[in-house]
Amino acid sequence: MALAEPMVDDDTLLARIAGGDRGAFTVLATRHTARALSVAQRVLNNAAEADEVVQEAWVKVWTKAGQWEAGGSARFSTWLHRVVVNLCIDRRRKQGFEALEDAPDMPDPAPAAGSLIARRQMSETIAAALAGLPERQRVAVSLCYYEEMSAAEAGRMLDLSVPAVESLLARARRALRGRLTALGITGVGEDEE
């Protein structure tokens, strides 16, 4: 299969992958790796580990492609993200949690302008608050807000109902708002409740 066929649907690509078609695998991986990597990085808060998780997920795709049921209840992208999330959760459980405060700060190559510094500090504060959430809330926030999935899509990935996902999101927003308010940051997310 040539890379010139990027419009082939995922189910067809999986069928070709099951037959050993490396070109189909390349097209599918090119199509979905960036979002899978984004999910893994948000859950793990570690780019190197996220990359390893996504590679492991693609190995599963290659070895299990023949078991995929075309036209089933879930889209391939939903299944892939669920595999990535489960691998992230397994990895965190095995290794334990490293606090964000213990991670080394990376120098910012951008010019040291006041607004850039303030924006970066706000992002770090929000990331630290997000990292302090319970795992299921953090995953729900990552999927719905950062990956822009609907509650229904996130629910399918997490094997939860839409009301359960919405409940996780509501609890996460309250917890984040409380943590940010304690740091003197107000007005975050108040219009969403």
Automatic annotation (TrEMBL):
GO terms for biological process: DNA-templated transcription initiation. InterPro entries: RNA_pol_sigma-70-like, RNA_pol_sigma-70_dom, RNA_pol_sigma70_r2, RNA_pol_sigma70_r4_t2, RNA_pol_sigma_r2, RNA_pol_sigma_r3/r4-like, WH-like_DNA-bd_sf. Residues 29-96 form the RNA polymerase sigma-70 region domain. Transmembrane segments: none annotated. GO terms for molecular function: DNA binding; sigma factor activity. Signal peptide: none annotated. Residues 125-176 form the RNA polymerase sigma factor 70 region 4 type domain. It holds the Pfam family Sigma70_r2. This is RNA polymerase. It comes from Niveispirillum cyanobacteriorum.
